[in-house]
Amino acid sequence: LCSEFLGLCSAPTATTLNLTGWFAKPKPNPLPPPKQPSGQLLKVLHLSDLHIDPRYANGAEANCTSGLCCRENAYNSHSPQTPLFPAPRYGSFHCDAPYSLITSVLEAIPALTGTESTGLDFTIFTGDMLAHDPDNQQSRALNEYSEVVLYDLFKRMLGPGPTYATLGNHDTCLPDQASPLSLGGNLSQQFSWLYDHVTSLWEIEGWLPEASVEFSRAHYAAYMVKRADGLRAISLDTNLWYRSNYFNYINSSEPDVSGILRFLTDELQDAEDAGDRVWIIGHVVSGWDGTNSMPNPTDLFDIPSVDRFSPHVIANIFWGHTHEDQLSIFYSNNCTNMSAETAQAVSWMGPSVTPLTNLNSGFRVYEVDSATFEVIDAYTWKSYVSDYPALDSQTEFGPTFEFEYSTREAYGGNITWGATDPLNATWWHLVTEQMEANPTLVETFNSYQGKGSILTAPCTGECIPARICYMRSGSASIAKQNCISGYGSVQ
Asked: For the whole prediction, is pTM greater than 0.85?
């Protein structure tokens, strides 16, 4: 607490993990034979960080000095009475997303991804539906209202495929908070209304089977869904490792006070026993530059969970939270040797729909092999927020979402790799080696990180090795141990 919230103390080092008895079985040696690709591709949508603002006011100050902009009470201190930059109808760089932007992106997705008649196979939503409101503008009713509206829009506008969702730090009231069940009594149950609410919505929409519902209600809205095709989706409440959650500083030397990583490890063991593949979804990133997550729980996630169950069980990991297009690689043996041979798994960080702060709006679709559940390619679309003011004078057209890039084409040009081989951890490590040899590839990554925003600053000098290091950091402690700090964000 002294280090994180007061800045008066140095941060404590990560606790040495004691894994005695943590695993029911050792890692198979040799590993089971890998699943053979089917050649049939699934289309999977990744949405993240919508941050809907029901209080968004067209024409209000969009360049404010008073908190969240584009609100009736927002102002710029240089012109308190008259907005210097009136809020455009579809959003602005210092504002969360109005309804008009969210409905525009949901309307665009089927047409742009070729799923108007077929629908998406499924969607993953990696959290944060609500605006960045200060605590005194939060309420349980606002949470419930926003979540009802947005999940209903997902169902209506994206087609019949299920959505596997997770809670973000702005999906609770008050923001960032989640109390561990180990506290006992009323303290441990103070967010149970939220878990019951979102679980009920997921059940009503037909996304959660009955077998997952009761566990989700009782355990932080975390769940496992076993699909008929052999994929298991495991959703974690990563607020339980978020540095801004006050409750995470109770017994913080213990890596799994909440029990969420016990749940994950047990589910991964069940998947291994059944020969199933797993996608893990959450909100707060486990690694990257190490600024968002607690070291002890993300060490327990990285070292035992990912190392023990990769690459044969965990096919992919997906986060949100940063609003930026990012990626991290997990390696075996606590990252003591980072190479193409030791790269085990990848976490994809989804671009945000909200423009906050200084970003374009975006979304991604993965092409996924239907047997291995590996990503074969990832396609990202963006919308230029700087163009939105010009749309206010007419009502015929909304925001344009344009194709930004294919991951395989953007980064794989000099890598010897089969045309249908997956974009797995080995491939991504080879990408980072190409970045070391050709730093202009880091600048390409930097541009995509901000979704092509005109406000994204270049990445030069020590930013280049820092970004490569972040890409090789699956946990917060690895990033803090190995990387130059201060270059994680383009905002």
From this structure: yes
